């Protein structure tokens, strides 16, 4: 029987949503406060993404290869036959473009980076370019990434909006704490009622 309240392991989707909002907030902050040029922005984003993504990607391929040698059966083994194709593909974070749903072996959470990195690209285009170049570049990025990334883009951009909103607005501390508690209670009720499952169906 199902427990009356969901465990923390059932909050994966919600955690990603929170992460996207926080990411938009942090990127808006660091861009305004630290990255005063497009070059600085690109270097900062690449350093932070690839310092984690590259080792994890190589580790995933290595562990999968080792498991295959030890006779572990896995549906994720096919990328090992073409690492020269799949490793660069995942380093370009192309796994969720349009109707693709391609993950590195044994690395399911990597899908969120395939959203996140392209939001960085789009934000950089909108922030640093001007005039017709900005319109053309933004349209090109949106046409490249496809409908799945469009759907979660407002979530990520809400973090950008919140960063700018909080610069001119403040919530009294006690009210903020009440709002935080109510949010957690409403989320627990939402999950316990199975409303998220019904909406996905």
Name the assembly state. Answer: single chain
Silhouette? globular
Point out poorly predicted stretches: none
Gap between N and C termini: 21 Å
Mean pLDDT: 91
Strand content: under 5%
Walk me through this protein's architecture.
- It is built from eight helices and no strands.
- It is globular and about 60 Å long.
- The chain has helices at 12-33, 38-69, 83-91, 111-128, 131-145, 147-166, 173-192, 195-200.
- With 201 residues, the chain is mainly α.
- The relative contact order is 0.14.
- α1 packs across α6 (147-166).
Features:
mainly alpha; single chain; 71% helix; globular; 8 helices; 201 residues
Question: What does the secondary structure layout of this molecule look like, with pairings?
Answer:
Layout lengths: L11 H22 L4 H32 L13 H9 L19 H18 L2 H15 L1 H20 L6 H20 L2 H6 L1
Helix pairs in contact: 1-6, 2-3, 2-4, 4-5, 4-6
Short characterization:
With 201 residues, the protein is mainly alpha-helical. Helix content is 71%, strand content 0%.
């Amino acid at each position: 029987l199902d427990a009356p309240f969901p465990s923390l392991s059932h909050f994966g989707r919600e955690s990603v949503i929170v992460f996207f909002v926080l990411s938009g907030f942090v990127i808006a902050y660091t861009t305004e406060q630290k990255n005063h040029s497009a070059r600085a922005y690109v270097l900062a984003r690449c350093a932070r993404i690839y310092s984690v993504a590259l080792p994890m990607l190589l580790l995933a391929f290595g562990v999968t290869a080792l498991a295959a040698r030890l006779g572990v059966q896995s549906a994720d083994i096919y990328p090992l036959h073409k690492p020269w194709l799949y490793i660069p593909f995942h380093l370009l974070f192309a796994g969720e473009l349009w109707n693709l749903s391609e993950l590195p072996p044994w690395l399911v959470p990597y899908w969120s980076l395939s959203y996140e990195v392209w939001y960085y690209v789009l934000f950089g285009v909108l922030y640093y370019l001007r005039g017709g170049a900005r319109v053309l570049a933004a349209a090109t990025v949106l046409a490249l990434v496809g409908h799945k990334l469009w759907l979660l883009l407002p979530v990520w951009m809400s973090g950008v909006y919140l960063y700018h909103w909080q610069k001119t607005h403040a919530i009294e501390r006690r009210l903020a704490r009440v709002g935080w508690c109510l949010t957690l209670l409403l989320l627990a009720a939402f999950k316990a009622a199975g409303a998220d499952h019904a909406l996905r169906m």
